Amino acid sequence: MEKKNLDWANLGFGYMMADYRYVSNYKDGKWDDGEITTDANITLNECAGVFQYAQTCFEGLKAYTTEDGHIVCFRPDLNAQRMVDSCERLKMPVFPVERFIDAVEKVVKANEAWVPPFGSGATLYIRPYMIATNPVIGVKPATEYQFRIFVTPVGPYFKGGAKPLTIRVSDYDRAAPCGTGHIKAGLNYAMSLYPIVDAHEQGFDENMYLDPATRTKVEETGGANFIFITKDGKLVTPKSDSILPSITRRSLMVVAEKYLGMEVEHREVLLEELKDFAECGLCGTAAVISPVGKINDHGTEICFPSGMEEMGPTTKKLYETLTGIQMGKLEAPEGWVKVIV
Ligand SMILES: *Cc1c(COP(=O)(O)O)cnc(C)c1O
Question: Which amino acid residue places its CA nearest to atom 14 of ligand 1?
Answer without folding.
Answer: 223
